[in-house]
Structure formats: structure tokens, C-alpha cells
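Summary for the funding panel

The consortium committed to producing paired sequence-structure records for every protein in the target list. Below we show the first two records in order, beginning with the earlier of the two.
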Amino acid sequence: MALRLINNAVLRQLVSQLPRNAQVGSVASIHTLDKIGKREVVGYGWNGTACYADRVDYPMPAVRFREPNNEINALRAKEQGDWKKLSPQEIKALYRASFCQTIAEIQAGTGEWKQHLGVSLLFTAAAIWIAILMNLFVYDELPVTFDEEHQKAQLKRIIDLEMNPVTGLTSKWDYESNKWKN
């Protein structure tokens, strides 16, 4: 009962702090509207939040990029009339007031792949150097059984003992002619 009363009191306080045009029912909407300042909300936004981000998959953000000033307000009033009367500079100024980047600028490469490649090559070089130093200073030399003479002796012993004659190495040995089978 006490929790329900506290919850209702907190909810009432949050609702009283909401501006009239905010998305009701979201605590995040209070903080989002504080962050956008005086910028105009012109759309729905991601999940109903008033946010700005330049993205190709979401080309129309919910908030204009810049806060309106006297120059932008004058251009917006002029925009309501005939667009042929607007100069290219005025059109660009209107566009930049609503958007930070064009689609071409968003799609342009940032060169971040070079940093990722460089870091991965540094880690690869460090791993190679660690492996070399481990071989030089940590690992012992290979045992004598790794030389060719000992390997031949071990193979001869496996054949003599007829180890795994069904599917193993000795299944490919012809014991009558003492040669490998074709």
C-alpha cells in the first residue's frame, strides 16, 4: 500500500514536470526534452523519442539540428512563399539548420578502418614476437626422438609389433614382400 502511494506521488510529480508537447508516459522524454533545448520537434523519432542523429537508415530525425535564430526564422518565413525566390545559399542555410550532414557526407568513409587494421597488425606483431621469444628462452629443445633416424626406428618397431593391423598404419604394409602396399 505504501509503495503504491509513493509510486503515485512520484508519477504525479513527473507528469507535472512534463511540458505540454512531450510524449507522455516516458521518464526519458523529460530528459530528452531538456537536452534538445529550443530546437523544434518535427517528427516522431526513434521509439517516439525526440532525438537527433545523422543516419542513412533513418534519414529524417525528429529534431532540427540547430536552434532557431533570427536569420533562420527569416529564412523559414521566406520559405513559406515561392521557393524560386530563394537563392542557393539560402536553401543550403535552411538545410543546414535542419540537418548536420547530407546523405553523401554520412555515407563518406571515415578512414576508421585504417586504425582498426593498424591495431590488429600491432597485436599480430606482438604475438609473433612473443612466440619467437618463447621459443628462444622458455621452451626446451626438441627431444632426440624427433630426428629422422629415431622416427624410422619407431616406424620399424610399429610394423614389427603389427600395431593396429586393421585400419592403422600397419594395414598398409605388406608383410610378405616387406614393402608398402600400393
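The next record, for a separate protein in the list, is shown here:
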Amino acid sequence: MESHAGLAATPRALPYYVAFSQLLGLIAVATTGAWLGLYRGGIAWQGVLQFNVHPLCMVIGLIFLQGDALLVYRVFRNETKRTTKVLHGLLHVFAFIIALVGLVAVFDYHRKKGYADLYSLHSWCGILAFVLYFVQDQV
């Protein structure tokens, strides 16, 4: 009898779960973009629309790209470990950079408007989430 200890079985439904998760992620990004475009006036790096960069970058970076980075090892289980590690790392780096752009946008907007930084529970929880995300990426 052959041993299959080295081969991990792929659940039959995994491709459907991955497709569903990608669809949900794209819907979240599209919904955020539509909300910002239709109801908040769009996005721009200058002026009052600079604040709108923040929610879009957070959704793209910390929801969509981070989720994809977490799925790499399950989706590409037949690829070499080096390939999956590189893809996993790149997705985390892109997620971090995009989330950092979102943070810079909101802090810069607050500075330009003369608003205080970190004045709400949302801002403190957001900073904590970002720092913990960065720390866990380094481990």
C-alpha cells in the first residue's frame, strides 16, 4: 500500500470557495469605490477628496490583498515552495504599501485641515490593527 503522507489532499470544493472569496473581495472594493465616487465626490490626493483615499486603500490593502496573501499556500499547493513564498510575500508587501498610503492620506488630510490625529476609537483601533499587521509580517 502506498503512503500519501507527503501529499496534501485538496478539498474538492476549494476552487469554489476561492472563487467566492475573490468575488466577495472584488465586490467590497467595487462597492467602496462606487460609494466614494457616487456619494462622496470621488478620490484625489489634494483637497477635500484626499480623505476618500483612506477607505479605498484600507479595503484594497487590508481586506483584498491580505486575504489573497493568506490564500496563496492553499491555492498554489502544487507549486514550488519558493514560488508560493515569493508570491505570498509580494502580496503582503503590496497590501502593506497600499494600507500605508491610506494612512498617509488621512494623516496628511488632518494636518492640512488642522484636525487632531488619533482622536477616536476608530483611529486607535486602526493604528493597532496596522501595527499588529506589520509586526506579524515581520515574524
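Regarding this second record: The CA atoms of residues 47 and 112 lie 9 Å apart. The two ends are 40 Å apart (CA to CA).
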